[in-house]
């Protein structure tokens, strides 16, 4: 898809399940995005955020092999980067400070993901490179 709201947008993907990460990456590339990652841990996500130009938005799996992605959400929120949370457990695991973040229940349709990201990016200037 070209000419869409996501063309050229940089999207960070934090997902610990390799198959899901590949599916998300494929959907985002098909929508014209530049994918940052995917990464599977909080440490890797924070390291990427500290070393790369900021993303336009992010997709966070809430539960990452024994840890949650809340610390990544905290960094993104502090930097004004919108994010969507993907989880098989619903919004219950989100702390109150992130209760307004969109939540996609796994399994979700890739079109739902790209539509949600397009809404998050709408009206926002692309992130500086």
Automatic annotation (TrEMBL):
<feature type="modified residue" description="4-aspartylphosphate">
    <location>
        <position position="61"/>
    </location>
</feature>
<feature type="domain" description="Response regulatory">
    <location>
        <begin position="10"/>
        <end position="121"/>
    </location>
</feature>
<dbReference type="InterPro" id="IPR001789">
    <property type="entry name" value="Sig_transdc_resp-reg_receiver"/>
</dbReference>
<dbReference type="InterPro" id="IPR050595">
    <property type="entry name" value="Bact_response_regulator"/>
</dbReference>
<dbReference type="Pfam" id="PF00072">
    <property type="entry name" value="Response_reg"/>
</dbReference>
<dbReference type="GO" id="GO:0000160">
    <property type="term" value="P:phosphorelay signal transduction system"/>
</dbReference>
<keyword id="KW-0597">Phosphoprotein</keyword>
<dbReference type="InterPro" id="IPR011006">
    <property type="entry name" value="CheY-like_superfamily"/>
</dbReference>
<protein>
    <submittedName>
        <fullName>Response regulator</fullName>
    </submittedName>
</protein>
């Amino acid at each position: 898809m070209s000419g869409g709201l996501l063309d050229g947008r940089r999207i960070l993907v934090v997902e610990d399940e390799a198959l899901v990460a590949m599916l998300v990456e494929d959907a985002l590339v098909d929508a014209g995005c530049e994918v940052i990652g995917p990464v599977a841990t909080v440490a890797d996500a924070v390291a990427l955020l500290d070393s790369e130009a900021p993303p336009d938005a992010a997709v966070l799996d809430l539960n990452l092999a024994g840890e949650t992605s809340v610390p990544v959400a905290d960094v993104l929120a502090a930097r004004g980067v919108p994010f969507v949370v993907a989880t098989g457990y619903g919004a219950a695991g989100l702390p109150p400070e992130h209760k307004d973040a969109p939540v996609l229940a796994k399994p979700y349709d890739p079109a739902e993901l790209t539509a949600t990201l397009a809404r998050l990016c709408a009206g926002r200037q692309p992130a500086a490179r």
